[in-house]
Structure formats: structure tokens, C-alpha cells
């Protein structure tokens, strides 16, 4: 089976930096994704890591350590619109086909 | 707009009934995935199809079934509905079923099912 853990809730202030951690245990690992989901809306893709290291994309960065089963999403210069749920998702590959398993998400509240 | 279309957006029905949710993937995407999202469980993977064939099954109940048609649209059938089936059901599509490229999923807006 697979196990993906991330904090349930986090709070931060507008303009600040926040780091959302994700740990996972899985077999057939083939990449880690971060998605953003506003309440009642569809998840939208933020970032993807398959190799160890940091991927930077504007205000968002994501880090992966495969040996530690660990990833984080770093959000800089927080804005009110960043208040959302952030979903860590692990892709596993078996028999040539991939599936994506999501964590329960971290609800981020950005306050003025 | 992700390009994935789901209907209906909202559905209210009674226990014991049967409903069908429909999904049209992005143009060119061969893989379709169904997820269930309830308040306390997060996004739960139900089932995946690739080019009309079932490829992976997750926590899908026996009361639920799905299929992908030759035109690549997919339907999720939920029968003998229970109160606990109330949830947001998402369909997602991707261009590849294997591990090539990013393989990110594009999600539809979801179908909100309420069972009374």
C-alpha cells in the first residue's frame, strides 16, 4: 500500500514564506506532484519532481528527496489568493501504467 | 478551463437510487481517471481507463462501475446509493498512461452528488 502524510492545516501571513511538507512510503515511485485546490473547485497542477532536488517555478518551489521519502512545497511572497488546500500526490508505476495517489491535503490560510 | 468536461455539476437523489456521471477528457488524452472526494477522506482514487480498457482500480465499491467508450468519454455508474456516497466526484485525464513526461492530470470541475 501507499502512505502519504502532510499536515492538516497551516496558517501564514501575507507576504511571508511557508513550507508544506509531505512524507510518503510507496513502491514503484515514479514522481511526486503538488496540486492546489480552492474550496469546491478542481485541483490544478503546481509542480512535479521525479529526481532529487529543487524545482523552482515563480513564487512556488518544490523539493524532493527520494531516499528520505520526503518532499516540500515552498510558497514565497504569500498572497491572499494562496489560501487553498495543497495536495501532495505520488505517482507509482506498475505493469507500464501509472496511478496517482493523493494525500489528504494541507489547508493553508493566509491572513492579512 | 482544464478542457475536461463533467456532467452533471450537481445531483441530488435518494438512497437506493442509481446515477450516472459523465466525463469527456481533453482532446487527445487517452487516459481517464475517476476520484471521489469527501470532506474527511481527501481525493480517493477509484478507477483508471486507457483507450477504452480498464488499467487500474483503487478503492472502488462493488456498487460502482465505470467504462470508457470508443470516443474516449467515460461514465461512472453509482448504484444502491447510500448517504455516505455523498461526495464530489472528479474525472481527470492525461495524455499518457505510462511514465513518460510529466503525465500531469487535468481535472474536470467535478460532479457534486448529494444522497438524501
Keywords:
heterodimer; A: 112 residues; mainly beta; B: 116 residues; 7-stranded mixed sheet; 4-stranded antiparallel sheet; 11 strands; 0% helix; globular
What does this structure look like?
The complex is a heterodimer of chains A (about 110) and B (about 120). Chain A is an all-beta fold and about 110 residues long. Chain A has no helices and eleven strands. Helix content of chain A is about 0%, strand content about 65%. By secondary structure, chain B is mostly beta strands. In chain B, strands 2, 4, 5, 6, 9, 10 and 11 form a seven-stranded mixed sheet that branches. In chain B, strands 1-3-8-7 form a four-stranded antiparallel sheet, with no helix packed on it. Chain B starts with a strand and ends with a strand. The mean pLDDT of chain B is about 90.
Q: Total helix count of chain B?
A: 0
Radius of gyration of chain B (CA) equals 13 Å
**What is the SS-derived class of chain B?**
mainly beta
Residues in helices of chain A, as a percent range: under 10%
Largest sheet of chain A: 6 strands, mixed
- Please state roughly what percent of the residues of chain A sit in beta strands, choosing from under 5%, 5-15%, 15-25%, 25-35%, 35-45% or over 45%: over 45%
Average predicted confidence as pLDDT of chain B: 91
> Helices and strands of chain A: which structural class?
mainly beta
Mean pLDDT of chain A: 93
Summarize the structure.
The complex is a heterodimer of chains A (112) and B (116). Chain A is mainly beta and 112 residues long. Chain A has strands at residues 3-5, 9-13, 18-25, 29-37, 44-49, 53-57, 60-65, 70-75, 84-94, 97-102, 106-111.
How does the SSE layout of this entry go?
The complex is a heterodimer of chains A (112) and B (116).
Chain A: E1 3-5, E2 9-13, E3 18-25, E4 29-37, E5 44-49, E6 53-57, E7 60-65, E8 70-75, E9 84-94, E10 97-102, E11 106-111
Parallel strand pairs in A: 2-11
Antiparallel strand pairs in A: 1-3, 3-8, 4-5, 4-9, 6-7, 7-8, 9-10, 9-11
Chain B: E1 5-7, E2 10-13, E3 19-24, E4 31-38, E5 42-50, E6 53-57, E7 64-68, E8 74-78, E9 87-94, E10 106-107, E11 111-115
Parallel strand pairs in B: 2-11
Antiparallel strand pairs in B: 1-3, 3-8, 4-5, 4-9, 5-6, 7-8, 9-10, 9-11
Amino acid at each position: 500500500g501507499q502512505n502519504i502524510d502532510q499536515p492538516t492545516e497551516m496558517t501564514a501571513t501575507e507576504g511571508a514564506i511557508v513550507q508544506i511538507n509531505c512524507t510518503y512510503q510507496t513502491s514503484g515511485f515514479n514522481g511526486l506532484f503538488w496540486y492546489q485546490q480552492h474550496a469546491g473547485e478542481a485541483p490544478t497542477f503546481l509542480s512535479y519532481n521525479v529526481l532529487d532536488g529543487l524545482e523552482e517555478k515563480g513564487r512556488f518551489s518544490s523539493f524532493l528527496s527520494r531516499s528520505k521519502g520526503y518532499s516540500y512545497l515552498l510558497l514565497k511572497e504569500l498572497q491572499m489568493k494562496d489560501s487553498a488546500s495543497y495536495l501532495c500526490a505520488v505517482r507509482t508505476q506498475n505493469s507500464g501504467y501509472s496511478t496517482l495517489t493523493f494525500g489528504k491535503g494541507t489547508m493553508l490560510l493566509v491572513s492579512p | 478551463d482544464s478542457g475536461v468536461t463533467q456532467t452533471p455539476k450537481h445531483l441530488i437523489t435518494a438512497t437506493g437510487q442509481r446515477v450516472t456521471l459523465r466525463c469527456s477528457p481533453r482532446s487527445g488524452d487517452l487516459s481517464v481517471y475517476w476520484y471521489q472526494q469527501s470532506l474527511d477522506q481527501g481525493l480517493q482514487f477509484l478507477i483508471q481507463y486507457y483507450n477504452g480498457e480498464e488499467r487500474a482500480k483503487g478503492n472502488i465499491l462493488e456498487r460502482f462501475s465505470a467504462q470508457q467508450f470508443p470516443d474516449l468519454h467515460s461514465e461512472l455508474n453509482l448504484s444502491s446509493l447510500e448517504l455516505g456516497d455523498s461526495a464530489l466526484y472528479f474525472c481527470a485525464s492525461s495524455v499518457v498512461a505510462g511514465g513518460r513526461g510529466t503525465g500531469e492530470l487535468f481535472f474536470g470541475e467535478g460532479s457534486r452528488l448529494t444522497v438524501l
